[in-house]
Design goal:
Strand order of the largest sheet: 5-4-1-9-10-11
Order of helices and strands: EHEEHHHHEHEEEEHEEEH
Radius of gyration: 18 Å
Strand content: 15-25%
Number of domains: 2
Helix content: 25-40%
Protein backbone atom coordinates (compact mmCIF):
# COMPACT_ATOMS: atom_id res chain seq x y z
CA UNK A 1 0.00 0.00 0.00
CA UNK A 2 1.42 3.38 -1.03
CA UNK A 3 2.38 5.82 1.71
CA UNK A 4 0.41 9.08 1.55
CA UNK A 5 1.41 11.94 3.84
CA UNK A 6 -0.79 14.99 4.39
CA UNK A 7 0.68 18.20 5.80
CA UNK A 8 -2.12 20.53 6.89
CA UNK A 9 -2.19 24.11 8.15
CA UNK A 10 -4.63 26.73 9.36
CA UNK A 11 -6.49 26.96 6.05
CA UNK A 12 -7.57 23.37 6.61
CA UNK A 13 -9.61 24.29 9.68
CA UNK A 14 -10.68 27.78 8.57
CA UNK A 15 -13.62 26.28 6.69
CA UNK A 16 -14.75 24.75 9.97
CA UNK A 17 -14.94 28.22 11.51
CA UNK A 18 -11.61 28.23 13.36
CA UNK A 19 -9.90 31.60 12.95
CA UNK A 20 -6.20 32.21 12.38
CA UNK A 21 -4.20 35.29 13.31
CA UNK A 22 -2.61 35.59 9.87
CA UNK A 23 -5.95 36.56 8.35
CA UNK A 24 -6.55 39.47 10.71
CA UNK A 25 -3.59 41.88 10.58
CA UNK A 26 -1.47 39.95 13.04
CA UNK A 27 -4.21 39.85 15.67
CA UNK A 28 -5.48 36.57 17.01
CA UNK A 29 -9.06 37.03 18.17
CA UNK A 30 -8.26 40.66 19.16
CA UNK A 31 -4.95 39.77 20.85
CA UNK A 32 -1.38 40.28 19.68
CA UNK A 33 0.23 36.88 19.23
CA UNK A 34 3.11 37.94 21.48
CA UNK A 35 0.63 38.52 24.33
CA UNK A 36 -0.99 35.09 24.25
CA UNK A 37 1.27 32.59 22.48
CA UNK A 38 4.77 32.84 23.92
CA UNK A 39 6.59 31.76 27.10
CA UNK A 40 7.04 35.47 27.92
CA UNK A 41 3.28 35.99 27.75
CA UNK A 42 2.72 33.13 30.21
CA UNK A 43 5.33 34.52 32.59
CA UNK A 44 3.81 37.99 32.40
CA UNK A 45 0.10 37.21 32.52
CA UNK A 46 -0.78 33.50 32.81
CA UNK A 47 -4.43 34.30 33.54
CA UNK A 48 -4.80 36.05 30.18
CA UNK A 49 -3.08 33.21 28.33
CA UNK A 50 -5.15 30.54 30.08
CA UNK A 51 -8.38 32.44 29.38
CA UNK A 52 -7.44 32.90 25.74
CA UNK A 53 -6.85 29.18 25.20
CA UNK A 54 -9.97 28.26 27.15
CA UNK A 55 -11.95 30.38 24.70
CA UNK A 56 -10.21 28.82 21.71
CA UNK A 57 -10.88 25.34 23.11
CA UNK A 58 -14.59 26.12 23.36
CA UNK A 59 -14.52 27.29 19.73
CA UNK A 60 -12.81 24.08 18.63
CA UNK A 61 -15.20 21.86 20.57
CA UNK A 62 -18.12 23.59 18.88
CA UNK A 63 -16.55 23.22 15.41
CA UNK A 64 -17.06 20.22 13.16
CA UNK A 65 -14.69 18.56 10.65
CA UNK A 66 -15.25 19.81 7.12
CA UNK A 67 -15.33 17.87 3.87
CA UNK A 68 -11.56 18.14 3.41
CA UNK A 69 -10.97 16.46 6.79
CA UNK A 70 -13.46 13.74 5.88
CA UNK A 71 -11.93 13.04 2.47
CA UNK A 72 -8.46 12.72 3.97
CA UNK A 73 -9.84 10.16 6.43
CA UNK A 74 -11.48 8.26 3.54
CA UNK A 75 -8.13 7.97 1.78
CA UNK A 76 -7.18 5.37 4.39
CA UNK A 77 -9.28 2.89 2.41
CA UNK A 78 -6.68 2.93 -0.38
CA UNK A 79 -3.47 4.34 1.10
CA UNK A 80 -1.28 4.18 4.20
CA UNK A 81 -2.17 7.70 5.36
CA UNK A 82 -0.17 9.74 7.84
CA UNK A 83 -1.34 13.25 8.74
CA UNK A 84 1.09 15.90 9.92
CA UNK A 85 -0.68 19.05 11.09
CA UNK A 86 0.31 22.48 12.30
CA UNK A 87 -3.17 22.86 13.79
CA UNK A 88 -3.82 22.46 17.49
CA UNK A 89 -7.41 21.29 16.99
CA UNK A 90 -8.51 17.65 16.83
CA UNK A 91 -10.66 17.86 13.70
CA UNK A 92 -8.56 15.34 11.77
CA UNK A 93 -9.12 12.78 14.52
CA UNK A 94 -12.82 13.53 14.75
CA UNK A 95 -13.13 13.09 10.99
CA UNK A 96 -11.69 9.58 11.32
CA UNK A 97 -7.96 9.91 10.57
CA UNK A 98 -6.15 7.30 12.65
CA UNK A 99 -2.55 8.56 12.44
CA UNK A 100 -2.13 12.27 13.23
CA UNK A 101 1.12 13.96 14.26
CA UNK A 102 0.56 17.37 15.86
CA UNK A 103 3.63 19.54 15.25
CA UNK A 104 2.35 22.41 17.39
CA UNK A 105 0.52 20.41 20.01
CA UNK A 106 -3.11 19.62 20.77
CA UNK A 107 -5.33 22.06 22.64
CA UNK A 108 -7.40 19.17 24.04
CA UNK A 109 -4.34 18.13 26.10
CA UNK A 110 -2.50 19.83 28.97
CA UNK A 111 1.06 19.71 30.25
CA UNK A 112 3.10 21.14 33.10
CA UNK A 113 4.19 24.77 32.89
CA UNK A 114 7.42 23.90 34.71
CA UNK A 115 10.92 24.89 33.51
CA UNK A 116 11.18 22.07 30.95
CA UNK A 117 7.62 22.49 29.64
CA UNK A 118 8.57 22.87 25.99
CA UNK A 119 10.35 19.49 25.98
CA UNK A 120 7.96 17.39 28.07
CA UNK A 121 6.30 14.33 26.56
CA UNK A 122 3.83 13.85 29.42
CA UNK A 123 0.36 15.08 28.50
CA UNK A 124 -3.01 14.92 30.22
CA UNK A 125 -6.45 15.03 28.58
CA UNK A 126 -8.49 18.10 29.52
CA UNK A 127 -11.91 17.29 30.90
CA UNK A 128 -14.37 19.80 29.46
CA UNK A 129 -13.23 23.02 27.84
CA UNK A 130 -11.23 24.84 30.52
CA UNK A 131 -8.07 24.78 32.61
CA UNK A 132 -7.95 26.59 35.94
CA UNK A 133 -4.67 28.10 37.15
CA UNK A 134 -5.33 27.26 40.81
CA UNK A 135 -7.15 23.97 40.49
CA UNK A 136 -5.32 22.22 37.64
CA UNK A 137 -1.79 21.56 38.92
CA UNK A 138 0.90 19.08 37.84
CA UNK A 139 2.52 16.70 40.41
CA UNK A 140 5.48 19.13 40.74
CA UNK A 141 3.13 21.95 41.76
CA UNK A 142 3.12 23.98 38.54
CA UNK A 143 -0.14 25.04 36.89
CA UNK A 144 -1.11 23.03 33.86
CA UNK A 145 -0.87 24.90 30.53
CA UNK A 146 -2.19 23.95 27.10
CA UNK A 147 -0.16 21.38 25.18
CA UNK A 148 0.74 23.82 22.41
CA UNK A 149 4.06 24.94 20.96
CA UNK A 150 4.40 28.68 21.51
CA UNK A 151 6.49 31.07 19.45
CA UNK A 152 10.11 30.75 20.52
CA UNK A 153 9.72 27.16 21.74
CA UNK A 154 11.15 23.96 20.30
CA UNK A 155 9.10 21.73 17.98
CA UNK A 156 9.83 18.27 19.45
CA UNK A 157 7.83 16.36 16.80
CA UNK A 158 9.69 17.88 13.84
CA UNK A 159 12.16 15.00 13.54
CA UNK A 160 9.31 12.48 13.37
CA UNK A 161 7.64 14.61 10.69
CA UNK A 162 10.80 14.61 8.57
CA UNK A 163 10.96 10.81 8.78
CA UNK A 164 7.36 10.50 7.55
CA UNK A 165 7.85 12.93 4.66
CA UNK A 166 11.08 11.29 3.51
CA UNK A 167 9.23 7.98 3.21
CA UNK A 168 6.21 9.34 1.30
CA UNK A 169 5.04 8.11 -2.10
CA UNK A 170 2.43 10.88 -2.21
CA UNK A 171 2.68 14.17 -0.32
CA UNK A 172 -0.23 16.60 0.00
CA UNK A 173 0.31 20.07 1.47
CA UNK A 174 -2.98 21.78 2.23
CA UNK A 175 -3.99 25.10 3.76
CA UNK A 176 -0.61 26.26 5.02
CA UNK A 177 1.17 29.46 4.00
CA UNK A 178 4.59 27.78 4.39
CA UNK A 179 6.04 30.77 6.23
CA UNK A 180 6.41 29.29 9.74
CA UNK A 181 9.80 27.61 10.19
CA UNK A 182 11.18 25.11 10.80
CA UNK A 183 8.05 23.18 9.78
CA UNK A 184 7.73 24.91 6.38
CA UNK A 185 10.98 23.18 5.46
CA UNK A 186 9.15 19.84 5.22
CA UNK A 187 8.35 20.51 1.54
CA UNK A 188 12.06 20.13 0.79
CA UNK A 189 12.29 16.68 2.41
CA UNK A 190 10.25 14.69 -0.12
CA UNK A 191 11.86 11.89 -2.16
CA UNK A 192 12.64 12.58 -5.82
CA UNK A 193 9.98 10.14 -7.05
CA UNK A 194 7.24 11.45 -4.72
CA UNK A 195 3.97 12.77 -6.18
CA UNK A 196 3.53 16.15 -4.51
CA UNK A 197 0.53 18.48 -4.41
CA UNK A 198 -0.04 21.90 -2.86
CA UNK A 199 -3.64 22.98 -2.21
CA UNK A 200 -4.11 26.63 -1.29
CA UNK A 201 -5.94 29.61 -2.83
CA UNK A 202 -2.53 31.32 -3.20
CA UNK A 203 -0.75 28.22 -4.48
CA UNK A 204 0.63 29.95 -7.56
CA UNK A 205 2.57 32.41 -5.41
CA UNK A 206 4.35 29.84 -3.26
CA UNK A 207 8.02 28.91 -3.60
CA UNK A 208 8.05 25.13 -3.97
CA UNK A 209 10.22 22.36 -5.41
CA UNK A 210 9.43 21.82 -9.09
CA UNK A 211 7.74 18.45 -8.59
CA UNK A 212 4.76 20.01 -6.79
CA UNK A 213 1.48 20.26 -8.65
CA UNK A 214 -0.34 23.42 -7.55
CA UNK A 215 -4.09 23.44 -6.91
CA UNK A 216 -5.22 27.03 -6.32
CA UNK A 217 -8.43 26.20 -4.45
CA UNK A 218 -9.71 26.14 -0.87
CA UNK A 219 -9.09 23.04 1.24
CA UNK A 220 -12.51 21.51 0.58
CA UNK A 221 -12.55 22.34 -3.14
CA UNK A 222 -8.98 21.21 -3.65
CA UNK A 223 -9.42 17.95 -1.76
CA UNK A 224 -12.54 17.09 -3.76
CA UNK A 225 -10.57 17.53 -6.98
CA UNK A 226 -7.50 15.66 -5.75
CA UNK A 227 -9.52 12.87 -4.15
CA UNK A 228 -11.09 12.04 -7.52
CA UNK A 229 -7.69 12.20 -9.19
CA UNK A 230 -6.09 9.83 -6.68
CA UNK A 231 -8.96 7.38 -7.01
CA UNK A 232 -8.34 7.19 -10.75
CA UNK A 233 -4.58 6.55 -10.46
Amino acid sequence: MRKLVVFSGAGMSAESGINTFRDSDGLWEKHRVEDVASPEAWAKNPALVQRFYNERRKNILDAQPNLAHQLIAELEDDFDVQVITQNIDDLHERAGSSEVLHLHGNIRLAKSSGPSAQYTTEFLPIQGDSLDLERDICPQGYPLRPHVVWFGEAVPAYGDAIDLVQDADIFIVIGTSLVVYPVAGLVHEIPKNCQAYYIDPKAMQAKLPVQFQRIALTATEGMQQLFKQLQQN
